[in-house]
Amino acid sequence: MKIAEDKVVSIHYTLKDSAGTVLDASAGSEPLAYLHGAGNIIPGLENALEGKKSGDKLSVTVEPSQGYGERDERLVQAVPRSAFKGIDQLAPGMQFQAQGPQGTRLVVVTHVATDVVTVDANHPLAGQTLHFEVEIAEVRDATSEELEHGHVHGPGGHHHH
Questions:
Q1: Other C-beta atoms within 10 Å of 143: how many?
Q2: CA nearest 155: which of 133, 138, 132?
Q3: Does the predicted TM-score (pTM) go above 0.85?
């Protein structure tokens, strides 16, 4: 069975940056399962997997425009320290959910001063060329419930709580 829209695809993958540093990998855990054509994974990887089948192995290089986008310096903002009420210890690298005009975004604290905290709402991988090594573990038809919800249920997929 080939990978196409509305198929559930399970992949093992290793993601490296351009320097060869491993950023993420599925090794030692369930393969990542996603619903093809539903935008569950970045476009550059989804496009490269189209038409492939179980057992295929491939190397995929994804430019920022097909990954997490370019860095946008407008997403780096200085916020009053008072915006973090109830949090005594703020440090670079801490992540928070922030409400913005586009809904909820993840922001990362990049600098902490006495009364100002700098946060970055760029995806941590924005602006980076991504290098994936992928092995396709399984391709199956999606269930009607998965199609309705737009994501995979069960092992390696989305869990409803």
A1: 13
A2: 138
A3: no
DSSP state of 30: P
- Per-residue confidence (pLDDT) for residue 160, from 0 to 100: 52
Alpha carbons 44 and 152: distance in angstroms, whole number: 20
Which CATH fold topology does 7-68+126-149 show? Chitinase A; domain 3 (3.10.50)
Looking up tokens 């491993």 gives 22
Contact 12, 24 (CB under 8 A): no
Q: In which residue ranges of the chain is pLDDT below 50?
A: 161
Residues 6+ apart with CB under 8 A from 103: none
Q: What's residue 139's pLDDT?
A: 97
Distance between CA atoms of residues 150 and 42, nearest Å: 15
43-67: pLDDT as tens digits: 999 999 999 999 999 999 999 999 9
Q: How many CB atoms lie within 10 A of CB 64?
A: 18
Determine how many CB atoms are found less than 10 A away from the CB of residue 27.
Answer: 9
The two three-digit tokens of residue 145, written as one number: 């419930």
Each domain of the chain, given as residue ranges in start order, spans 7-68+126-149, 73-120
- SS3 call for 147: helix
Per-residue model confidence (pLDDT) at position 161: 47
